[in-house]
Design goal:
alpha+beta, Cathepsin B, Chain A, twelve-stranded mixed beta sheet, 14 strands, 41% helix, globular, Peptidase_C1B, EC 3.4.22.40
């Protein structure tokens, strides 16, 4: 029997809707805006022409030689890998006297997929043994997108220090590197299935050795899937090239790890010498403390993801000092906010929502955006230039992206200093640019944030 309810008109009262419409119709500007927005991209309508006509890609300080060619991650979330490789190649090209060069992003992509699958299965085993419910917040979070393409800086350190680097010519991208969605879906499918099997094994009282054997069987299957999709990275490489003087050069046979240790780490770019500075202004997370995020990593037993929380001006100062010394800076930001991809601008003043819609998209401050889920780090890029005013404050930044040459100024973005303040969350700089008192924080015990905290977000954005 269907139960009958006596109720008044559901939802918003009809007279209230009528009042909304009457007020809307009373302002002719609303109809003009409606006519335009119904036929055009909203961002083109709210774009302030006087703002975008002003900026120029000229900076008081810029690294002497930027990397070539402009890289393109295509339809994948590998921006964090590309930004790192782009940072290293600047110093590497200078050392080797070469002009055009790329490291193999697919090499690190392959090993990240392998290691991260093992990490998540090991973490799930640990969590299940503690009696966590599968539909609880923690496991639900970990199973939401376990094969995520994105990452953070310390995950790169883990990969490079174990597997090394190689030139892209020695192992180019393949289809599943450039268009990773289907591989990601397949990995997600298997990890969720494996979680089910691990839960069953734990419930049946399996020993630690039995669970380890079960995971190894799962990882054998995962290795097969990833190797078929991406290929198997070479164990040794031979790199032949001409330098700028047209002289033939050869490196190898050599392993990718030895290539990194001998040709990069010693005198070009030491991954372990970098420090991650973040700007998280939420009142519950004070500055001048070390933080990590629970179950945020890509490799068992490896370096944890650590960052020192600092006021945004510290991030700017350290980044500017690095650029002045001809060293580019890996950074993480919420790129989609106040952004025009085609023109290549990140500017909080470039869109006039108030004129068109009578509202603003900047109604929350940086802290509240994190708290209410309005913003977090989504993309990693490279800072290669900065303009510094006479009073030593910064005004604008030059950014090397990894979306090809058809965005911005042949692949480069201009970011205003105000945008940096509002939407940049991480910078990675060499320790020599970090004050001693901030470096000392790295030796303290980190505060552990929950796995779902926004500061655990992974840089992953493909072209917008």
């Amino acid at each position: 029997m269907i139960r009958q309810f006596a109720y008044k008109m559901a939802g918003i009262p009809t007279e209230t809707i009528a009042a909304f419409k009457a007020k809307f119709d009373a302002d002719p500007k609303n109809h003009l805006a409606q006519n335009v927005c119904s036929r055009q991209d909203m961002l083109d309508v709210v774009l302030k022409r006087d703002v975008i006509n002003g900026p120029h890609h000229v900076y008081t300080h810029k690294i002497k030689t930027e990397g070539k060619p402009v890289t393109n991650q295509k339809s994948s979330g590998r921006c964090w890998i590309f930004a790192c490789m782009n940072a290293i190649r600047i110093a590497f090209c200078k050392e080797k006297n070469i002009e055009d060069f790329e490291f193999s992003q697919g090499h690190l992509f392959f090993w990240d997929k392998i290691e991260r699958s093992n990490y998540i299965l090991s973490a799930l085993t640990e969590i299940l043994k503690k009696g966590e419910k599968v539909d609880g917040r923690l496991i639900s979070h970990l199973l939401h997108n376990p094969s995520e393409d994105g990452g953070q800086w310390d995950m790169l350190v883990n990969l490079v220090e174990k597997y090394g680097l190689m030139p892209k010519k020695c192992w180019p991208d393949v289809y599943s590197c450039e268009k990773s969605m289907r591989l990601g879906r397949l990995i997600n499918n298997k990890i969720r299935e494996f979680c089910y099997k691990l839960k069953k094994a734990v419930d049946e009282g399996s020993t630690d050795d039995q669970l380890t054997t079960l995971r190894e069987t799962m990882m054998e299957e995962m290795y097969r899937i990833i190797s078929i999709s991406v290929g198997s990275p070479p164990e040794t490489i031979i790199w032949e090239y001409y330098d700028k003087d047209k002289k033939y050069q050869k490196v190898g046979p050599i392993t990718p790890l030895a290539f990194y240790q001998e040709h990069i780490k010693q005198n070009v770019f030491n991954m372990e010498d970098k420090i991650v500075l973040t700007n998280d202004p939420r009142p519950q997370n004070p500055f001048n403390k070390l933080y990590t995020v629970e179950y945020l990593n890509n490799m068992m037993g490896a370096r944890p993801v650590l960052y020192v929380n600092q006021p945004v001006d510290v991030l700017k100062k350290c980044a500017a000092e690095s650029i002045k010394n001809d060293e580019a800076v890996w950074f993480g930001t919420d790129v989609g906010k106040c952004f025009n991809g085609k023109l290549g601008f990140n500017d909080t003043e470039m869109y006039d929502y108030d004129l068109v819609f009578g509202t603003t998209v900047l109604g929350l401050n940086k802290s509240d955006r994190l708290i209410y889920g309005e913003s977090l780090m989504t993309h990693a890029m490279l800072l290669t230039g900065v303009s510094i005013n006479e009073d030593e404050t910064t005004s604008k930044w030059r950014v090397e992206n990894s979306w090809g040459e058809d965005h911005g100024e042949k692949g480069y973005i201009q970011m205003t200093d105000k945008f940096f303040s509002e939407f940049v969350y991480e910078v990675v700089v060499d320790k020599k640019y970090v004050p001693d008192d901030v470096q000392a924080i790295m030796k303290t015990t980190p505060v552990v944030l929950p796995a779902w905290d926004p500061m655990g977000a992974l840089a992953h954005t493909a072209k917008l």
